[in-house]
Amino acid sequence: MKLHRKLWMQIHLYLSLFFLPAALIYALTGVLYIFEIRQNSGASITEIKLDSMPQKGKERDFIIQTLQEHQLKVPKDTNLRVMKGNITMGNIKYGVTLTKDKNEQPILRTIDRGLYGILMLMHKSSGNKWELGGFKFSFFDMIAIGFGISMLLFYLSGLIITSFCKGKRKVAFGVLGAGFIITILAVYLSI
């Protein structure tokens, strides 16, 4: 079966439209991350200093009781997880962590993120995960993988649609070569 330009145009159009929301998320969060606007930007963060860490096996009850004593929201998901050596509960929107501050004093930290923080964490492949074939994925990871594959198809279909710049191939290959050289140079100079 021969793929004609019209079919490539349709592939290019519909994949572009479908993945436009993901492209906007990646573009916005990627650029803002460069300017050091991270996932906790604009988040409501509360830190409660603790006298000591709770006893092993009593962490869940301790966290819930401490939150209630300070009139703070208890996360819907109260299952405990260990992330970066700290005990956490909740999700990427609202989470609670038992950790230590810079002076090694125990604290209970709550983080309530807004939309930007959630989108940044989606960009970084965070969120509720499920296992498939030995790998852990969030639902947004499926969009991300599809978007990554589609980026290759966008370029391929764009080249086919334009018949790779008929009549201007030398210029086109020159621009392609310049893109490779500048990109390699930028990576090298950034190390």
Describe the structure.
This protein folds into two domains: about 5-35 and about 135-165, no CATH class; about 45-110, no CATH class. Helices cover about 50% and strands about 20% of the residues. The protein has helices at about 5-35, 60-70, 115-125, 140-160, 170-190; strands spanning about 45-50, 80-85, 85-90, 95-100, 105-110, 130, 135. A five-stranded antiparallel beta sheet has the order 1-5-4-3-2, with helices on one face. The protein has a two-stranded antiparallel ribbon with strand order 6-7.
Number of domains: 2
Q: With helices defined by DSSP (H or I, 4 residues minimum), what is the helix count? A: 5
Which percent range fits the helix content? Answer: 40-55%
Radius of gyration: 24 Å
Low-confidence stretches: none
Instruction: Decide which structural class fits the backbone.
Output: alpha+beta
What's the gist of this structure?
The protein is of the alpha+beta class and 191 residues long. It has helices at 5-34, 59-69, 115-123, 139-161, 169-190; strands spanning 44-49, 81-83, 86-90, 94-100, 106-112, 130-132, 135-137. It folds into 2 domains: 5-36 and 133-166, no CATH class; 44-112, no CATH class.
